[in-house]
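Problem: given the chain below (102 residues), write out its structure.
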Amino acid sequence: MGIGHCLAQMSLLNRGQCTKLNFKKAMKIDSKKTITEKQGYEAMLYMLKYYWELTGSNDLTDILSGGEYIKADTPADSAFWEYWLEAINKVEREGPLRKQFI
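Solution.
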């Protein structure tokens, strides 16, 4: 099950449309990699855009409920950490998210 599926399921649960989630086992974050403030900001934009595309939700509580720690270095939903790493890699590969004008 990919991260998109996990995020979409969480959004449905928060909207009362789904009663059961298949969360992965809690995963402790063990990373020593650092990024710049600018890269962190750009990765956050990619992550929020991806979440919005998957769920259509503008509710930040959906994101915060899965991304917060349930214990030290352990996010409530490990998919959030995995997507964060994907977003950082995307910033490094593609640069900042650019607004596209129609």
